[in-house]
Amino acid sequence: MFRQLDYKCQWYGRELVKIDRFYPSSKRCNHCGFVVEELPLDVRSWDCPSCETTGIDRNINAGKNILAAGLAVIVCGADVRPDNHSVKGQLRKTRTSRKKQKPRS
Ligand SMILES: [Zn+2]
User: Fold this and answer.
1) What's the predicted TM-score (pTM) here?
2) Mean pLDDT over residues 59-87, rounded?
3) CA of residue 78 to ligand 1 center, whole Å
4) Domain enclosing residue 82, as ranges
């Protein structure tokens, strides 16, 4: 699945960082870090109730969050890699049992 990306990254001398698929990239405000409870897929832009930023574009916001998460992993080894679930098994369990999570598109 990541073979193409791996190849491209090696070609361009870039580092590939994989992010947890349950990382709330769309639902997290990239301005203040607030995470909204629900963000249905048909909502393309939203307003942050915490910092009151308006018109947050779902995809651009997610892109900024994923970039920030990837940089956090490289710089300080942040805990957003998929591999870390074995260590945080407890946390994963409560997250998935709460509600069925649809895979993000
Ligand atoms: Zn905010």
Assistant:
1) 0.69
2) 82
3) 21
4) 3-98
